[in-house]
Amino acid sequence: MTTQTHTTQTHTLDHAAGRVPVALTGLVLVLAVIVAVAVNVVVAWVARGAGATPGFPPLTVPVFGAFTLVGVLVGWAGWRIIEHRSARPGRLLGWLVPVVGLLSFVPDVALGLLRFIPGATWPGVLGLMVMHVVVIVIAVPAYLIAGRPATSR
């Protein structure tokens, strides 16, 4: 009984040693959100300068900040599911990330065409599209860092 318990504990410790600590993962994801929101503040400012309606709700920090947070967290969840369930996660993510990025433009184009949010203009819509790219460009490296086993650093 003692030998079996010892073996189980050793296996658990070895398995845990190859994983990124939860606190580090959380820190990396929080930093990704902060950096993405900061860059998107600049994107919103440029979009307003290019003709987006002042006060256009999607270009305000509370709105795009919340969507950035949700996007990073949902992206992380999807990333981890694919890493754990796919035989070739790198290959799958290599085409899935750009496809999801392109699909994220569909609501923006619909907004530009249908103007279902008051104050929607093409400069505002293009700003939103750039924000999607910003989040992807910042989140993907964060996912690579947050998901890297401690033994490979």
Automatic annotation (TrEMBL):
<feature type="transmembrane region" description="Helical">
    <location>
        <begin position="93"/>
        <end position="114"/>
    </location>
</feature>
<keyword id="KW-0812">Transmembrane</keyword>
<protein>
    <submittedName>
        <fullName>Uncharacterized protein</fullName>
    </submittedName>
</protein>
<keyword id="KW-0472">Membrane</keyword>
<dbReference type="InterPro" id="IPR045713">
    <property type="entry name" value="DUF6069"/>
</dbReference>
<feature type="transmembrane region" description="Helical">
    <location>
        <begin position="20"/>
        <end position="47"/>
    </location>
</feature>
<feature type="transmembrane region" description="Helical">
    <location>
        <begin position="126"/>
        <end position="146"/>
    </location>
</feature>
<dbReference type="Pfam" id="PF19545">
    <property type="entry name" value="DUF6069"/>
</dbReference>
<keyword id="KW-1133">Transmembrane helix</keyword>
<feature type="transmembrane region" description="Helical">
    <location>
        <begin position="59"/>
        <end position="81"/>
    </location>
</feature>
